[in-house]
Structure to design on (129 residues):
């Protein structure tokens, strides 16, 4: 659905990027649990389990068609992260997984990303929390 509101268009662009990330990593769309603060249009939450930790975003109903590949109501729970933590986890994903020279590349399977972090944790070379 196309909206004349420029802010809605920006959220749709953001949703397209999040949907691409959800293709690579385990994820699900869950119902927002909480205090009723969120408008009914924004009660869908995508939760993605990155090797660097969980990230999540509220997704507008109008953008749910972008997430047809994502399972619904799988029981994932928000781990309590805030926005700075979420974006730090994304930055670590880029720095520790996708940069050349570290043995990991974007074309490799997600299972390899988990193995990479597990191996670094076992070696004591990275705090993966």
């Amino acid at each position: 659905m196309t909206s004349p509101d420029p802010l809605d268009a920006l959220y749709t662009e953001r949703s397209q990027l999040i949907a691409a990330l959800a293709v690579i990593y385990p994820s699900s769309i869950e119902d927002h649990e909480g205090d009723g603060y969120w408008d009914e249009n924004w009660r869908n939450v995508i939760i993605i389990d990155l090797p660097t930790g969980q990230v999540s975003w509220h997704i507008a109903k109008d953008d749910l068609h972008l997430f047809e590949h994502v399972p619904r109501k799988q029981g994932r729970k928000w781990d309590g992260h805030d926005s700075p933590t979420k974006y730090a986890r994304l930055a670590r994903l880029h720095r520790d997984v996708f940069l050349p020279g570290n043995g990991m590349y974007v074309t490799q399977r997600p299972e390899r990303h988990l193995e990479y972090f597990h191996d670094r944790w076992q070696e004591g070379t990275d705090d993966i929390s």
In short: Residues 6-123 form one domain. The first strand starts at residue 27 and ends at 31. Residues 6-24 form the longest helix (19 residues). Residues 47 and 78 are 7 Å apart (CA to CA).
